[in-house]
Automatic annotation (TrEMBL):
Protein name (Swiss-Prot/TrEMBL): MxaA protein
Organism: Methylomagnum ishizawai
Keywords: Signal
Signal peptide: 1-26
Length: 302
């Protein structure tokens, strides 16, 4: 016999519950939401949700709720939870677990129960009917052999996992990481390529730390000393103004900032060996010179 569509079955269930309560004005309205009633096997859990709309002023007698524990030899009520909703509505969740091991498909039923409500007009009850469902065996008693097949077929072997894709991803991640490390090492001069970008970069960082103290004479002298140290380390020996022509001959990459370098050495001579005042060479100008030298240092030929 073909069952009517689920919405009509659900409406019929609400109607049945309402009739079971007497369909009186003072009786609460109960709606049962349940999953499918078929396809269960031993150990499965079944969850029911009762939506109860009691009459105004009525309260649920919680002693009428079923208590968690074994209901019979094959069914256990694992959990009962009552959650209040808007307008006095109650949502009652019940979780059952079946332990029956049928040999063939068998129809069983979750026992019904009654809920009691107390109010100003007395006590009312709502009967929750039994809920039938079908339970299937894990394996049938026997399987007939047909067409030369064995009675019980062996399980299909699992497909081997895809190892190529994770390996390719791991390889691409490793390559990306190595390239990033190589580039970082190039910037920091870890590969011995003339220590490119290292000396003037360190000088620029030192100037940044000095800049917080303003442009006072002592700070400016310290800044000039820092830049002198960068030139000395680039040449790998002390560099004086008299040797600048030789420096530019051996380090042609610095020709673009030759005028600024010469102005730096001239201001340095005035600062350290002259009257000690430099008006046109501040820490900002020193930082700009270092910035230009950093780019040259990184990109010059080894």
């Amino acid at each position: 016999m073909r069952l009517p569509p689920w919405p009509f079955r659900k409406l019929a269930l609400v109607f049945a519950l309402a009739v079971a309560t007497g369909w009186a004005d003072a009786a609460p309205t109960v709606r049962l939401e349940a999953p499918h009633a078929y396809g269960y096997t031993v150990g499965d859990t079944i969850r029911h949700v009762l939506t109860v709309d009691p009459e105004p002023g009525d309260r649920l007698d919680e002693t009428s709720l079923p208590r968690p524990g074994p209901l019979n030899r094959w069914l256990e009520l694992r959990r009962v939870a009552v959650e209040p909703g808007p307008g006095g509505r109650l949502n009652i969740a019940l979780e059952y677990q079946t332990f029956y091991v049928p040999l063939t498909v068998k129809t069983l039923a979750i026992p019904g129960f009654s809920l009691r409500f107390t109010g100003t007009t007395g006590t009312t009850t709502a009967a929750i009917p039994a809920w039938p469902f079908s339970l299937s065996p894990v394996h049938g008693l026997a399987v007939l052999s047909e067409g030369g097949l064995d009675a019980v077929q062996a399980d299909a072997p699992p497909e081997p996992p895809d190892t190529a894709t994770p390996l390719r991803r791991a390889g691409s991640f490793a390559l990306t990481g190595l390239l990033a490390l190589a580039y970082l090492g190039h910037l920091r001069g870890f590969w011995g390529l003339g220590q490119r970008g290292r000396h003037f970069r360190e000088a620029r960082l030192a100037l940044r730390r000095l800049a917080v103290n303003g442009n006072e004479a002592a700070v400016l002298r310290a800044g000039f000393a820092v830049v002198h140290r960068a030139f000395d380390r680039t040449l790998e020996e002390p560099l004086f103004a008299e040797r600048l022509p030789e420096f530019f001959t051996d380090h042609t990459a610095y020709a673009g900032v030759r005028g600024e370098i010469e102005a730096f050495f001239q201001a340095s001579y005035t600062l350290f060996f002259g009257d000690g005042t430099v008006r046109d060479y501040s820490l900002d100008r020193l930082a700009n010179l270092c910035r230009a030298c950093v780019h040259i240092e990184r990109n010059r030929p080894a």
